[in-house]
Specification:
- With 307 residues, this protein is an alpha+beta fold.
- Strands 1, 2, 3, 5, 6 and 9 form a six-stranded mixed β-sheet that branches. A five-stranded mixed β-sheet has the order 13-14-18-17-16. It has a four-stranded mixed β-sheet with strand order 8-19-15-12, with helices on both faces.
- Helix 7 links the parallel strand 16 and strand 17.
- The radius of gyration is 22 Å and the shape is globular.
């Protein structure tokens, strides 16, 4: 009898579980590509390795590209090399991807998607969406970063370091590389980048479980800032770099004499999923989102001042 009750409870639990739906997406940018491997190349053509990852761990899929910045360089760019006659381009490309992914990926698995050639530059595209990440903890010594489209085309930088203008220009010239669509050709929401802080000793915990809900001046939300506000206003902290899905967002443009905050708290907060608050006089730029599925931790960092 007891065994039957246990089995019934297990079955009831199993059938009550909400099974995540498979997220459907298409990448229109692949339409630009010649899906063969380039053959008519010249000595010293520059080969750019453009590897991307479609992250499906949150409510919407989103794009990330691998960008490379050696410690002695100032900007992020695609990993690249010069073509030499008789070079086995596929083998060389595979060796570059394997080497650059040793830093924080458990498994290296990728599919070649095609190429674009512009003058003496060849861009080879690889889908690395099936790679299994090993760690989120990053420092300035990491030479390979996963970068979202918002960082590439809007900020043109990652954690204060610039992205090479040739990378930015590629995405401006080929707009379909910047977004994903669903099966009905509707654009999936493009996330924005945001930063939070914590005690640097708690970075591993935050990387695993996320940031804390905070009851602050906008209400009970998850709060994020732009990178400059975090590093300029806070010391002795860990930095949490996140993607944010704003959904239905309210923009509050505030100043010292405004009562817009009280209006927000009293009347409007229930109508929106997030709020962007900006106060130029105080140099505040803040995003606040309601739900934990509206953000995802991309990486965590120890502020240089903590060394």
């Amino acid at each position: 009898m007891i065994e039957e009750d246990i089995n019934k409870n297990v079955n009831d639990l199993f059938y009550s579980l909400e099974i995540p739906k498979k997220i459907s997406y298409n990448y229109p940018g692949l339409e630009y590509l010649n899906d063969e491997f380039p053959t008519l190349l010249n000595e010293n053509d520059i080969i750019h390795i453009c590897t991307y990852n479609v992250n499906v761990l949150n409510k919407y899929p989103f794009l990330q590209y691998f960008l490379y910045k050696p410690h002695n360089e100032t900007s992020f760019s695609f990993p690249s090399f010069f073509y030499k006659n008789e070079m086995d381009l596929l083998t060389k490309s595979m060796s570059v991807i394997n080497a650059m992914c040793l830093s924080y990926y458990k498994d290296t698995f990728f599919n070649y998607k095609g190429y674009i050639k512009e003058d003496n530059c060849v861009y080879l595209f690889f889908d690395c969406s099936h790679m299994k990440i090993d760690t989120l903890k990053m420092t300035e010594y990491n030479d390979l970063w996963l970068v979202i489209i918002d960082e590439i085309i809007n900020y043109k930088s990652v954690c204060g370091s610039p992205i090479d203008e040739n990378v930015v220009e590629l995405f401006y010239n080929y707009e379909k590389f910047t977004y994903l669509t669903d099966d009905e050709d509707n654009h999936h929401q493009m996330p924005i980048i945001g930063y939070s802080t914590c005690d640097f000793k708690k970075l591993d915990f935050v990387a695993t479980f996320g940031i804390q809900l905070k009851n602050d001046f906008l209400g009970n939300y998850y709060y994020f800032n732009v990178y400059e506000d975090v590093v300029n206003n806070v010391t002795k902290c860990g930095i949490i770099r996140c993607v944010i899905f704003t959904d239905n967002m309210k923009i509050i443009y505030d100043d010292i004499d405004s009562n817009k905050i009280s209006e927000w708290n009293n009347n409007l907060s229930l109508l929106f999923d997030s709020v962007y608050y900006t106060n130029p006089s105080l140099k505040n730029n803040i995003w606040a989102v309601k739900n934990d599925n509206q953000y995802l931790v991309l990486s965590v960092h120890i502020n240089n001042n903590n060394k």
